[in-house]
Design brief:
Elements (H helix, E strand, L loop, with lengths): L1 H15 L12 E2 L12 E4 L20 E6 L5 E9 L5 E7 L10 E3 L3 E4 L7 E8 L9 E8 L13 E2 L6 E5 L21 E10 L1 E8 L5 E8 L2 H6 L9 E3 L5 E9 L4 E7 L6 E7 L6 E2 L6 E11 L2 E22 L6 E12 L3 E7 L5 E11 L4 E3 L3 E5 L6 E4 L6 E6 L4 E7 L5 E5 L6 E5 L6 E9 L4 E8 L1
Parallel strand pairs: 1-3, 10-12
Antiparallel strand pairs: 2-9, 3-8, 4-7, 4-9, 5-6, 5-8, 11-18, 12-17, 12-19, 13-16, 13-18, 14-15, 14-17, 20-21, 21-22, 21-23, 21-24, 24-25, 24-26, 27-28, 28-31, 29-30, 29-32, 32-33
Length: 477
């Protein structure tokens, strides 16, 4: 019996104390970069039996059990997520460096959270990710999944020329970028010493009074408002030469209120909201309780019924429909690889002024590999234009077993399983709190109503009847 025990110990000894292949920086494992925030591609990892590396630790925690990974940036901003963390400790730390094991330099990111957002990256450059437990204790057996994600495209109204209306009785909620550049030079921004991650709106006054607008977020935001302008065209044409704003705030608060007294019918005001915190967050804009003025949105050039972008073999079908159109000259179809830089791929003649439904159809015969973003630029006869909501289509060489569509979405989406049936669905917010839990399914496709969810990014956990668990991301706007 003693001999058998000794033999078992000898056989298992190498595995108990085997160091991971990426225990040192030189052995960093290359991980894929997802084209979105859905984490369709993840890399399993573990700090079990890892040892300290010779590279200095420029961040907090004790890197005595660090493991290394590398990725090549495809965008100027990416996210890092440590998912499914389990084991002897769940308190992990990660840091990011330029890809030079011999001279790491200052960390680009130090994060005690299991997620972080990197900005200012150079597409095509490689970066190192160092993962370790916070504690100085040894012997941790923690496992995790590493996901490198790509941020969604910014709102379409990030430039003054593309400003969108604020309508009385309607709440605007949008996902602000953490790497959206800065507002253009030339305007007098008043109290705003900096103007990072801008979004632009206009308000056309229909009834006079006091204009009060609430702006709410989770982290520091600021605003400036200009006017009055005689009309929207004048407001758009003079952008980059605005004088001092009539109201602004550069406070550290995440809740702001813009106020202008004595506004008159027909006047137009321009509102700039900046995401000073430079983090991805939802910002909500609506009328304050003290507001007595109202804005007019009835002059919108079109009433959009639908806009769809769907993959068909190696082409993308673009379909959209309108209920009404007013002085609509044409539509410009635009495409982008990253949501920042857009190219025109075609035009469709508009219906002028029409009170009947109109349908349009266009084919992109040469879409990008990976993910493509699409939007419509609707142009009036007088040259004014409106940028319509963004849609995305992905062509992947890897067959996925679970798909969420549409994504991003506002109030519903479908979960489809290619090779199995769905048994259970759990949706959690960024804090890990479960917000939706559905069970007892036995279908290949499940409809999810998410009207009750606030805008943001959620993790969807899908359990299938063949005892597999999948993790996907859904973006609610």
């Amino acid at each position: 019996m003693k001999n058998l025990t000794l033999m078992l110990f000898i056989l298992t000894f190498p595995y108990l104390y085997s160091q991971p292949s990426n225990d040192e920086c030189s052995g960093a494992i290359s991980v894929p970069v997802n084209p979105d925030l859905l984490c369709g591609s993840i890399t399993p990892g573990s700090i079990a039996s890892a040892t300290n590396s010779p590279q200095p630790n420029g961040c907090s925690g004790t890197a005595n059990d660090d493991v290394w990974y590398s990725f090549t940036a495809t965008n100027s901003a990416h996210t890092i997520d440590l998912l499914n963390v389990s084991g002897s400790t769940t308190d992990l730390y990660h840091s990011v460096y330029n890809n030079n094991c011999g001279a790491l330099g200052t960390a680009l990111e130090c994060s005690d959270m299991n997620n972080s957002t990197l900005t200012g990256l150079t597409p095509g450059n490689s970066y190192l990710v160092r993962v370790y437990s916070w504690s100085s204790s040894s012997g941790a057996t923690t496992t995790f999944d590493l996901c490198i994600g790509t941020l969604p495209p910014p709102p379409s109204n990030t430039t003054c020329a593309a400003m969108e209306p604020i309508c009385s009785g309607s709440t605007i909620s949008f996902q602000a970028s953490g790497a959206g550049g800065s507002a253009p030079i030339g305007n007098d921004y008043g109290c705003l010493s900096t103007q990072p991650n801008p979004t632009w709106f206009f308000l056309e006054i229909s009834n006079p009074g006091t204009l009060s607008i609430d702006i709410t977020a989770g982290a520091d935001i600021d605003y400036a408002i200009w006017g009055p302008f005689p009309n929207l065209t004048d407001a758009q044409n003079n952008c980059s030469s605005y004088g001092p704003p009539v109201d602004c705030s550069y406070s550290t608060s995440s809740i702001e209120q813009a106020n202008i007294s004595g506004v008159n019918s027909g006047e137009v005001y321009v509102l700039l909201v900046t995401n000073y915190a430079s983090v991805i967050q939802s910002i909500v804009v609506n009328e304050a309780a003290s507001n007595s003025a109202s804005t007019d949105c009835t002059i919108l050039p079109i009433q959009l019924i639908s806009f769809e972008a769907t993959a068909n073999s190696r082409e993308v079908n673009l379909k959209w429909g309108t209920a009404t159109e007013t002085q609509c000259d044409y539509y410009e179809i635009q495409r982008s690889q990253n949501g920042l830089f857009w190219e025109t791929i075609g035009f469709e003649k508009g219906s002028g002024t029409s009170n009947i439904e109109s349908s349009y159809y266009k084919i992109d015969k040469k879409p990008y590999r990976g993910i493509s973003y699409y939007r419509l630029k609707q142009v009036d006869f007088n040259g004014q234009f409106e940028l319509l909501p963004i849609r995305s289509v992905e062509f992947s060489t890897n067959k996925r077993e679970i798909n969420l569509s549409p994504n991003p979405t506002k109030d519903w989406f479908n979960i489809s399983a290619n090779n199995s049936k769905i048994k259970e669905v759990s949706i959690k917010d960024n804090n890990g709190k479960e917000v939706i839990h559905l069970t007892d399914y036995n279908n290949a496709t499940v409809f999810i109503n998410c009207e009750s969810l606030t805008p943001g990014v959620y993790i969807v956990e899908i359990s299938t009847t063949d005892h597999q668990v999948y993790y996907k991301r859904i973006v609610i706007y």
